[in-house]
Each structure stands twice: as C-alpha cells, then as structure tokens.
C-alpha cells in the first residue's frame, strides 16, 4: 500500500454490510471515519470528521442498465436512521478493534436528531 504524504493515514474495513474507512491524525488518534452501507443498492454514507463534523449522503453513480458505469457522487440525503445502523454496525463490528468500533458507535449516537446537519 502506498501512502500519499500530504494525506493522513487511513485504514479500511469491509464486510458484506459495511465499508468503514478510519482516518488518523499524525499521533495515531482517530480523527474521523466514513461509514458506507446498503452497498450496491441505495447506498448511503455517514462521514464524521473532528474538524468538519457530520455529513450524511446517498451515493449515486453505480451501473444502470444500458449505460456506462458512472463515478460515484455524494448527494445530500434525508434523515439518518441512526438506531437501525447502530444496531447493525454493533452486530457486524465484532472482528475489528474494539476501540475503533466504540469510537464509531459513540459518534453514531452523537449524530443530531432531525434533518441532516446543514440541511433545511
């Protein structure tokens, strides 16, 4: 794996339900993550970054019949079903480091109720 010097270190975890990319500061403390789910069908992503906060999006750009595959694009989405995703992530995260899983769970619980941050 090649690391681009200007970027922070990242670790990627994947299973049938989730992709989790964890970003680290130079001191190896977690500074954020991107959690993608519903892979392949109506995919969504939650990003949490210590300097920027939260974003919640739908991922568009997968193959559509009769068309070329498009590059994925993040499109702001509606409400984040945090209780459902928290339960599923807790169930699926048994094989990753407990500190990383705990950090993601805590941040999912912190996600504000109601419309997405910065939304209408």
In short:
The chain is of the alpha+beta class and 120 residues long. It has helices at residues 82-92, 98-110; strands at 10-14, 18-24, 30-37, 44-49, 53-60, 73-76. Helix content is 20%, strand content 32%.
Tell me what you see in this structure.
It is a single chain. This protein is of the alpha+beta class and 120 residues long. It has one domain. The chain is built from two helices and six strands. The chain has helices at 82-92, 98-110; strands spanning 10-14, 18-24, 30-37, 44-49, 53-60, 73-76. It has a six-stranded antiparallel beta sheet, covered by helices on one side. A hairpin with a 3-residue loop joins strand 1 (10-14) and strand 2.
Question: How many alpha or pi helices?
Answer: 2
| Number of E strands | 6
Distance between the termini: 40 Å
Instruction: Give the tally of structural domains.
Output: 1
Global structural class: alpha+beta
- Given the C-alpha coordinates, what overall shape results? globular
The Cα radius of gyration reads 15 Å
Estimate percent helicity: 10-25%
The largest beta-sheet arranges its strands as 1-2-3-4-5-6
Low-confidence stretches: 116-120
